[in-house]
Amino acid sequence: MLRWCQGTRGSSFVTDYVFVDAFGSGKYRTAKECEYLIGQPVTEEFFAAVNTKEVLQRMVGNLLNLGKRESKDRSFMLLRVSLDLYLAMYPDSVQHLLLQARLYFHLGIWPEKVKNQRQRIC
Predict the structure, then answer these.
(1) Residue (of 59, 37, 40) closest to 50 by Cα position
(2) Are 81 and 100 contacting, i.e. CB atoms less than 8 angstroms apart?
(3) What is the rounded distance in angstroms from the CA atom of residue 38 to the CA atom of residue 86?
(4) Cα distance between residue 81 and residue 67, in whole Å
(5) What element of type H or E holds 3?
(6) Which strands make up the sheet holding 2-5, listed edge to edge?
């Protein structure tokens, strides 16, 4: 969700904000509608603004999860690209290094990178 304040600039009241549902065709939503969409009660901290790095982390995490679930082509392009992005942000994530090595091994690509990652992890 994106948000902007319709009340006093920098207001700490969630009711002073309108939210744009990026996954719902850009529909404007109130905090109460957002809570209903989530399906559980939320606190005001849930609606707090995040910095640019956190937005990027969430976006890459979402792409990675989507790539894991819905890679329909044999090249697993979405998963490959999202793993590259994730590892650019978190180069020491053993779990993701292993996933990338398994994927490359499965696809038969970049055997030298698979070998280097294996040595790096062990």
Answers:
(1) 59
(2) no
(3) 26
(4) 9
(5) strand 2-5
(6) 2-5, 17-21, 27-29
d(CA 37, CA 16): 19
Q: The whole model's pTM is what?
A: 0.64
Asked whether the predicted pLDDT for residue 14 surpasses 90, the reply is: no
Degrees to nearest 5, angle at CA 84 with 83 and 86: 60
Cα distance between residue 87 and residue 84, in whole Å: 5
Contact 70, 78 (CB under 8 A): yes
What DSSP line would sit under 55-67, residue for residue?
Answer: HHHHHHHHHHHHH
Helices 94-107 and 111-121, interaxial angle, to 10°? 150
* pLDDT per residue as tens digits for the range 29-45: 998 998 898 888 888 88
Closest CA to 35 of 53, 11, 17, 52: 17
With beta carbons less than 8 A apart as the criterion, state whether 30 and 19 touch.
yes
